[in-house]
Design goal:
Elements: H1 2-61, H2 68-77, E1 81-88, H3 104-109, E2 113-120, H4 122-128, E3 133-135, E4 141-143, H5 146-150, E5 166-174, E6 177-187, H6 188-191, H7 197-208, E7 216-220
Antiparallel strand pairs: 1-2, 3-4, 5-6, 6-7
Helix pairs in contact: 1-2
């Protein structure tokens, strides 16, 4: 009986071990894909905000920038974005005139509308227009704070590291003209550096096979005048 009991115990342990191994072999890629999706989405949100800042920088200064220090500090601290507002001079508009029925330029010539040019802070303007959204810990949508804007430069994962997105900008010749371009990206090898090595290698290979896609996440492109993200 004693020998049979030992055999039964050994078999029970083996069965439990096998069951755990099978469960883990199934769940490991599932957990990897869940974490991968979370990291992809976190990167996408930051990259979209960086693109918004770059577009505001181009509107303000006429070009993109490849420096996070320049991008963030100038947009946060300078009243440099030119905004043209219009004031309707209702006191001079005849009662039988509907300015909505005439071209704006004509209304300006007649003095019914006055255009005013002012310079405002780019970040304040973006917030006013609702272009820097984020969902807070409470689940409510709000606009990015100054501190969150300063931290956009950092790749969100791995959390214990403080890697920066790779940001470049320049001019691209197209049909005899030069157009500003920028690119901001992070490779999967960096974003997933603390995860299962073989699964990371497999994911990079999988992503790379999609029409020669960059094996990571990015917005913009240094070789063509686009600002799209490859996650969109």
């Amino acid at each position: 009986m004693k020998g049979r009991t030992i055999i039964q115990i050994v078999l029970a342990v083996a069965i439990v071990g096998l069951a755990y191994w099978l469960y883990n072999s199934i769940m490991t890629p599932v957990r990897f894909d869940t974490e991968y999706t979370k990291r992809r989405d976190a990167c996408a949100e930051k990259l979209k905000s960086i693109r918004t800042l770059e577009e505001a920088y181009k509107v303000t200064y006429g070009k993109f920038t490849g420096s996070f220090d320049t991008l963030i500090n100038r947009l946060l601290n300078e009243d440099s974005m030119r905004v043209v507002s219009k004031v309707i001079n209702r006191e001079v508009i005849p009662a039988d005139v509907d300015i909505n029925e005439m071209p704006e330029n004509e209304a300006v010539k007649l003095g019914y509308i006055t255009r005013q040019e002012v310079f405002v802070n780019p970040i304040a303007k973006l917030r006013e227009d609702g272009k820097l959204p984020i969902v807070g810990a409470d689940g409510k949508k709000r606009q990015l704070t100054d501190e969150e804007i300063r931290n956009l430069r950092y790749v969100p994962y791995p959390k214990e590291e403080k890697n920066e997105f790779d940001l470049k900008a320049g001019m691209l010749e197209k049909s005899g003209f030069f157009v500003p371009v920028f690119e901001c990206k992070v490779p999967l090898s960096q974003l997933l550096s603390d995860m299962d090595h073989q699964l990371v290698v497999n994911k990079i290979d999988e992503v790379s096979k999609v029409a020669g896609r960059y094996p990571g996440w990015k917005v913009g492109d240094m070789t063509q005048a686009v600002t799209d993200g490859n996650f969109e």
